[in-house]
Amino acid sequence: AMALPGDLWAELPAERRIFCSVLLFSWAVYLWEAFLAHRQRRVYRTTTHVPQELGQIMDSETFEKSRLYQLDKSTFSFWSGLYSEVEGTMILLCGGIPFLWKLSGQISGRAGFGPEYEIVQSLVFLLLATLFSAVTGLPWSLYNTFVIEEKHGFNQQTLGFFFKDAIKKFVVTQCILLPVTSLLLYIIKIGGDYFFIYAWLFTLVVSLVLVTIYADYIAPLFDKFIPLPEGELKQQIETMAKSIDFPLTKVYVVEGSKRSSHSNAYFYGFFKNKRIVLFDTLLEDYSALNKEPAEGEDGENEETKSKTKNKKQGCKNEEVLAVLGHELGHWKLGHTVKNIIISQVSYYKLFF
User: Fold this and answer.
1) Coil, strand, or helix at residue 231?
2) Which residues of the chain have pLDDT under 50?
3) In contact, 304 and 157? CB cutoff 8 Å
4) How does strand 225-227 pair with strand 248-254?
5) Which of 15, 71, 145, 300 is the most buried (most CB within 10 A)?
């Protein structure tokens, strides 16, 4: 008699069933997200006129530019997502992970660390894996920055700045990731039956520390932060923060214009020490993109293109307050705390 699929599945070794389950789950998630993205892309493609609800606040030119940009981003996301899923599948099917683990053991062995130094081997494995990911992701990042972002007038980077920034990010990431991982593996190794509790508490502490020090010690390695000058905007921001009891201590402006003409705003800090950061591209008459080049200059510097011919950047004060109000709304509604709790519950279940 012909065996039923369920019988064939039951006959598979446990490790093979786990392998197939992981692969099937990965593709199921990818296909579901691709389906949702396809539905959204259809909206981008068919909605060619400003919706009635936005007619009073958005002109046709701005809407069309945004629509075409989102279409290009959607196409890019589809192909990059498909590549990522196929790459991950091939790594699993072709034994890429065991191969990399064996290679890591050979490298650590040549450095004088035998098989008993499994934490060292794990760190070498992690370094090689992140390096592989960075290299395979580089063409996609280049295309996104210098084709899509460039086409729509958002890119402000030169090729040299792009690579310098990418290398710096990789090095800083390794300086944080490798020590944290080594401590985590050591805790798991000596933790006994309750290692998952100790590992979870460790990741909780690390997460809180990183959130605390990121803006003061890590972000300044990549971008310049300066206090927002005294003036009407700062007074309005302080008034809005006070109206919702937001414990604001400082307001900074970050030089986002050296990378992109996109704009953003965010806040950080715990308890009574909250700080707000505004991208310079968000502020009218402040962004470097609005400054005319001095006589004899071509409007470009060594790191960025500073496209002074672009349409004037930035928002009016009331628009800046609207953007910031959205961000402060996350705090007022407790979204930040809720996200931390959800992520920590996920970590606990992962270790358990």
Assistant:
1) coil
2) 1-2, 293-300, 306-310
3) yes
4) antiparallel
5) 145
Digit-coded pLDDT (tens) for 256-315: 888 888 888 999 888 788 899 999 999 876 655 555 544 444 444 555 554 444 455 678
**Angle between helices 335-351 and 317-332 in degrees, nearest 10:** 50
CB environment 107-139: b (16+ within 10 A), e (fewer): bbeeeebeeebbbbbbbbbbbebeeeeeeeeee
Q: What percent of the chain has pLDDT over 90?
A: 58
DSSP 58: -
Check 255, 300, 303, 327 and give the catalytic one. 327
Which amino acid belongs to residue 36? L
Collapse the DSSP code of 243 into the 3-class scheme (helix H, G, I; strand E, B; otherwise coil) and give the result: helix
- Number of Cβ within 10 Å of residue 43's Cβ equals 11
Q: How far apart are CA 304 and CA 257, in angstroms?
A: 8
Is 330 known as a binding-site position?
yes
List all residues 6 or more positions away from 8 whose beta carbon is below 8 Å from its beta carbon.
none
Q: In what order do the strands lie in the sheet with 225-227?
A: 225-227, 248-254, 274-279, 265-268
- 38 labelled binding-site residue: no
**Positions of E strands within 2-118:** none
Q: Residue 163 in 3-state DSSP?
A: helix
Cα distance between residue 170 and residue 157, in whole Å: 18
Q: Exposed, middle or buried by CB within 10 Å (0-12, 13-18, 19+), for 227? A: exposed
Closest CA to 34 of 111, 112, 86: 86
DSSP, collapsed to helix, strand or coil, labels residue 155 as: strand
Question: What Cα–Cα distance (Å) separates residue 109 from each residue in 71, 90, 106, 132, 179?
Answer: 50, 27, 5, 21, 20
Nearest C-alpha neighbor of 259 from the set 163, 157, 169: 157
- Judge whether 318 counts as a catalytic residue: no
Give the Cα separation of 307 and 298 in Å (integer). 10
Helix H or strand E segment including 267: strand 265-268
Cβ proximity of 293 and 308 under 8 Å: yes
Distance CA 57, CA 64 (A): 14
